[in-house]
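Lecture 7 notes: from sequence to structure.

We start with a single chain of 298 residues. Read the sequence below before looking at the structure.
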Amino acid sequence: MSAVKVFLPALATVIAAQSAPAEATAAQGAIVIEGQRLHSQVDDFVRKLTPAQNDQLSRFAEDVCPAVIGLSDDLAKEITGRIRSVAGAIGAPLAKPKCSPNLVLLVVHDKEVAIHQLRTRMPGLFAQMLAAELEELVDNPGPVAAWQVSSRVGADGMPLSKVRIRKEDGNNDAVPLVRGGFLSRVNMQIMRRLDLSLVVVEARALDQVDTRQLADYTAMRTLAVGSSDVSNLPARSILQLFNAGVSPLQAPESVTWWDVAFLKSLYRSSNRVEASNQRAQISKMMASELNRVPVEQR
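Now the structure, written as tokens:
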């Protein structure tokens, strides 16, 4: 892996797309078709990056604290700094320096060996996995593995076993949570949050990968719980960095506009609704974000 400078692109700077002239009917039709195509692609992108099996989507509710293990101190500092820049730009909460890491990149020689060692020393990292999921994590032929540890909490951040309810006199009481904590199908009394997110990368895969690519890939794999299969995404994404047949020189140099729009929309959406409703929110906000970017830059 070459040590390169970590550039800080202006992720928050969006060039407003010029309004298309309303003179030609054909041009208007093209705009409509382009808009329909974009919404279809956005829906597909969101669907593939959000697990279908969860009734709610997970994200960090507590401050994000990145850490890197297995690289030199200088490279680790560059990568964590870049992850902090991306997390801050998309609206994720950020911890102060010298925090307790909850977003971790591990660079190892052998992914399978590293996972087996973690299972022996820290079995709690895998307690939420089904046997088939753990087998897939270990046996996946790619050089990367990523997984998360999540929990359910009340809407006020309290443990799932108790939810704080505001009484008529203005006081708060902690009461047992019953039947999943639904206030309604629209507004849930509980939410799912990320407690720890990990990425394991084999060192052999880092040839020609620069620090910005590695940091941005890690950010995308950890700030959201996404699918491990990103080979058929409808748009370019830093998640394609380690895809089979894709060299680092062919992959995006950083998070793409699609990546940024997805993460920003995820962290702006409500996670007190069912996954299907939250996906719809994300898709709508993401399409709005991308509509502000010229087509040739997406």
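The CA atoms of residues 236 and 288 lie 18 Å apart. Keep this in mind for problem set 3.
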